[in-house]
Design brief:
The complex is a heterodimer of chains A (417) and B (282). Chain A has 17 helices and 2 strands. In chain A, 75% of the residues lie in helices and 1% in strands. Chain B folds into 2 domains: 63 residues, no CATH class; 211 residues, MetI-like (MetI-like fold), CATH 1.10.3720. The chains are: A mainly alpha (417), B mainly alpha (282).
Chain lengths: 417, 282
C-alpha cells in the first residue's frame, strides 16, 4: 500500500491542476464567444419597444433586455462548467488510474476509490473554506487588532470598561439576547405543542394548521413591516410633525384598543424595556408554525398502543399528554429548541428594521452592525469593536454547536452508521 | 383515543371549542388581514384617520398598479428571482454530491469534513460579515448578484449537506453495492442509481432553500446596495422609505414581496413540511 500513496497524491494533484486551469479558461472563452447573444436580446427589446411604442426611454429597454440575455447565458455557462468539472475530473480519475496502476485492476480501483469522494466533496469544500472558515478566523484575528493592524485587546477591554459607552450597550444587548433566548423558544414550543394537539382534534384542523404556518413563508422584514401596522403609534409622523400638527388618531390597532390617548404616539415596540416583548412576539408569530409542524409530525409518530394503554388505565387528557406523549417526543422538542436558539442568536432583521438605534432594544447582532457603521463616541475610536462583538456572539453559539454535533454523532451511532 | 374527537364531548365544550378556535385563528392572522385591507384602501382614508374602518373605495388596481409600474419593485422582484433560482440549483447540486460522498464513502477526513459542514450550519453569520464583504469587494463581486449567489450557496451547503447525507444514509446500501459488483463507474452510480432515489429530498430541500434565500435580508444589505442587485427583502425597506407614511403603498408592496414564497409554500406544501421535518427530526 505504501507505494500507492504517491500515485494517489500525484493523480489528485494532476486533476486539481487541470480543473483549476481548464475551467476558468473555458468559462472566459465561453463568455466572450457568447457575447453577441446580448446584442440579439437587445435587438428583440428594440423591436418590442418600437412595435408597442413604450413610453420610457429606449436605452432602458436595451439595457434591460441585454441583462436578460446576460443572465440566461450566465446560467447556461455555469451549468455547463459544472458538468465539465464533473465529467473531466471523473474521466481524468479513471484514465490516470488506468495508466498509473500498470495493469493491476486492484490497484486501479483503489486509486479511483481514494480520489472519488474528493471529486464530489471538492467544490463545496472550496466554497466552505473560502466563504466560511477563512472569514470566521479572519474576524477572530481582526478582533485582536487596531484598525492599522497593531495587536491589541482594546476591543474586548472596551466592553468591560465602565466609563465607555460600549459598557452599557453591551450589557443591554446581553440582557436582551438572554431574554430573547429564553422567551422566544419557550413561547414557540409551548404554542406549537398546544396548536399541534388542539388542531388534531377538529375536522378542519389541517386548514387551521396551514393558516398558522403561513407566516413562516414570510420574511422577517416582511413580518416586521406587517406587525408595524398593529403596534404603530399615532399620527402620520413625517408630514404631520413638519406642519406642527399633533396627530389626532391612533394608527396601531393595539394601541387604539388599549385606549392610549392620541398625544401618546410612541409605537408599542418603542416602549422602554417592554418594547422588547413586542419585537419578540413577531418572531414567535413567525416561528410557531415551524414548531407546530414538527411536533404534529412527531405526535403522529407516537405509538398508538401506549396511548390506548394509558387511556384504559384511566389517564385524563392532561396526564396522557404530559406523562405519555411528551416524554416520547422529548428528543424532537430538544431538536426544535436548539434550532430556535440558534435562530434567535442570529436574529437581526426584526429589531434592525423596527428599532435599530435604540440602546434599550439592542441585541448582540444589531449592536454589532451599529458598531460597524458608527463607532466613534466621545473620542473613543474603537474601529474593530464589531469583530469582538461578533466573537462574543460566536462564543454563545459554540456550546450549542458542540451539543448538536455530539447529538448527531450519537444518533448516527445508534442507527449503526 | 386521545384527543377525543370533539363530536363526542359535551355540547358546551364543543361549542366553546368551535367558537374559540376560529377567533384565535383570526387573531393570529389579524396582521395579515390588516395589511391586505390596508393595501386596497385609498390614500384619503389614511389622511382622514380611517385606519381600521372599511375602505371608502376599492383601490386594488390603483395601488398595486403603482407598485408594479411606478416603483422599483419589479426590478427588485426580478433580482430576487435571479438570485434565488441559481442559489437553489447550485446548493442542491453541490450538496447532493457532497452528501453522496460523505454518506457512501469511508475515507480519511470524512468525519472531519462532515463536522465542518455541521459547524458551518451553526455559525452566526455576523462573524463572517466584514471579511466576506471585503472578499467580495476584492473579487469585484460587491453589489452584484453573482457575489450574493456564491455566498448563499456556500452558506447553505452546510445545512443541505447534512440533510442530503442523512437522506442518502437511509437509502438501502445494497443498491449501491449491487451496482458496484456489476462494475458500474462511481459517477454513474451517483447519477443513475442514487440521484433518482433522492428526488423527494431534492424537492423538499429546493422548496426550503427557496424560502430561506428569498427571505434573506442580512446578506442582501451587506453585499449589495441599490436596485441593480438588491433582492426584494432589501427593496421593501427602500420602498418603505420612498413611500413613508403612505400606508396603502407600503402594505401593497409588502404583499407583493411576500407573494412568491407564500405561493411556493401553498403549491409545494407537502415538500416544504417534509423538508422541515426531515431536517429537524434527523
Amino acid at each position: 500500500m505504501r507505494s500507492i500513496r504517491p500515485v494517489i497524491a500525484g493523480n489528485g494533484l494532476a486533476i486539481i491542476l487541470t480543473v483549476v486551469f481548464l475551467l476558468p479558461t473555458t468559462a472566459v472563452v465561453a463568455f466572450v464567444a457568447t457575447g453577441p447573444i446580448d446584442d440579439f436580446f437587445a435587438n428583440i427589446g428594440i423591436w418590442l419597444h418600437r412595435t408597442n411604442e413604450w413610453s420610457f426611454p429606449e436605452f432602458d429597454t436595451i439595457e434591460r433586455f441585454s441583462k436578460i440575455g446576460f443572465a440566461i447565458r450566465a446560467i447556461f455557462i455555469a451549468v455547463g462548467i459544472s458538468f465539465l468539472y464533473f465529467w473531466i475530473s471523473n474521466w481524468l480519475n479513471m484514465g490516470l488510474a488506468r495508466v498509473s496502476s500498470r495493469g493491476s485492476l486492484g490497484r486501479q480501483s483503489t486509486i479511483i476509490e481514494a480520489i472519488q469522494p474528493w471529486i464530489f466533496v471538492g467544490p463545496a469544500l472550496v466554497l466552505l473554506l473560502l466563504f466560511l472558515l477563512i472569514p470566521a478566523f479572519s474576524t477572530l484575528s481582526i478582533s485582536f487588532q487596531e484598525a492599522d493592524g497593531t495587536p491589541t485587546v482594546r476591543n474586548y477591554a472596551f466592553l468591560w470598561d465602565e466609563s465607555a459607552l460600549g459598557y452599557l450597550q453591551f450589557r443591554l444587548a446581553m440582557r436582551n439576547s438572554l431574554m430573547w433566548l429564553i422567551l422566544v423558544p419557550t413561547c414557540c414550543i409551548s404554542l406549537g405543542l398546544l396548536i399541534a394537539v388542539l388542531a388534531d382534534s377538529v375536522r378542519w384542523g389541517i386548514v387551521a394548521k396551514t393558516l398558522i404556518f403561513v407566516p413562516l413563508a414570510i420574511s422577517f422584514v416582511g413580518a416586521a413591516v406587517i406587525w408595524r401596522n398593529i403596534f404603530a403609534g399615532g399620527g402620520i409622523e413625517a408630514q404631520q410633525t413638519i406642519n406642527g400638527v399633533t396627530p389626532s388618531y391612533q394608527i396601531g390597532l393595539l394601541k387604539a384598543l388599549l385606549g392610549h390617548t392620541a398625544e401618546y404616539n410612541e409605537p408599542l415596540y418603542n416602549l422602554k424595556f417592554w418594547g422588547n416583548f413586542f419585537l419578540m412576539w413577531i418572531l414567535v408569530w413567525v416561528q410557531t408554525g415551524f414548531a407546530m409542524v414538527i411536533f404534529s409530525a412527531a405526535l403522529r409518530g407516537v405509538p398508538q398502543d401506549t396511548i390506548e394503554a394509558a387511556t384504559i388505565d384511566g389517564a385524563n387528557p392532561f396526564q396522557l399528554f404530559f406523562r405519555v406523549k411528551l416524554p416520547q417526543i422529548y428528543s424532537t422538542v430538544l431538536v426544535v429548541w436548539t434550532t430556535l436558539v440558534i435562530l434567535v442568536l442570529k436574529v437581526f432583521d426584526i429589531p434592525y428594521a423596527l428599532s435599530a438605534n435604540d440602546d434599550d432594544k439592542l441585541l448582540l447582532a444589531t449592536m454589532m452592525e451599529n458598531a460597524r457603521n458608527n463607532w466613534s463616541i466621545g473620542g473613543d475610536n474603537v474601529d474593530n469593536l464589531f469583530a469582538s462583538i461578533a466573537v462574543m456572539l460566536m462564543l454563545t453559539v459554540v456550546p450549542n454547536m458542540i451539543f448538536n454535533a455530539w447529538r448527531i454523532r450519537r444518533e448516527q451511532k445508534e442507527l449503526g452508521h | 383515543m386521545f384527543p377525543t374527537p370533539i363530536q363526542q364531548r359535551s355540547r358546551a365544550s364543543q361549542f366553546s371549542y368551535q367558537v374559540f378556535l376560529p377567533i384565535a385563528l383570526i387573531l393570529w392572522l389579524l396582521p395579515l388581514i390588516a395589511v391586505m385591507i390596508f393595501s386596497i384602501k385609498p390614500d384619503g382614508d389614511f389622511v382622514k384617520g380611517n385606519f381600521w374602518g372599511l375602505p371608502s373605495s376599492f383601490e386594488f388596481f390603483n395601488n398595486y398598479g403603482r407598485v408594479f409600474f411606478a416603483s422599483d419593485m419589479p426590478q427588485y422582484l426580478l433580482n430576487s428571482v435571479f438570485i434565488t433560482v441559481p442559489t437553489v440549483i447550485g446548493a442542491v447540486a453541490l450538496s447532493s454530491m457532497t452528501g453522496f460522498a460523505l454518506g457512501v464513502y469511508k475515507f480519511r477526513g470524512n468525519l472531519l469534513i462532515f463536522f465542518m459542514f455541521i459547524a458551518g450550519n451553526f455559525v452566526p453569520f455576523q462573524i463572517l460579515m466584514v471579511p466576506v464583504r471585503d472578499l467580495t469587494v476584492n473579487l469585484n463581486l460587491y453589489d452584484t448578484k453573482l457575489g450574493l449567489i456564491l455566498f448563499h450557496i456556500a452558506f447553505q451547503t452546510g445545512f443541505c449537506t447534512l440533510f442530503m447525507r442523512n437522506f442518502i444514509r437511509a437509502l438501502p446500501y445494497s443498491l449501491i453495492e449491487a451496482a458496484r459488483v456489476e462494475g458500474v463507474a462511481e459517477w454513474k452510480i451517483f447519477v443513475y442509481v442514487v440521484l433518482p432515489l433522492m428526488k423527494p429530498a431534492i424537492a423538499a430541500l429546493s422548496v426550503l432553500i427557496f424560502t430561506f434565500i428569498w427571505n434573506d435580508y442580512f446578506w442582501a444589505i451587506v453585499l449589495t446596495q441599490g436596485p441593480d442587485a438588491q433582492p426584494v427583502t432589501a427593496g421593501i425597506t427602500a420602498f418603505n422609505s420612498q413611500y413613508r407614511a403612505a400606508y396603502h403603498m407600503m402594505s401593497a408592496g409588502s404583499i407583493v414581496a411576500a407573494i412568491p414564497p407564500v405561493f411556493m409554500f401553498f403549491l409545494m406544501q407537502k415538500h416544504f413540511i417534509a423538508g422541515l421535518t426531515l431536517g429537524a427530526v434527523k
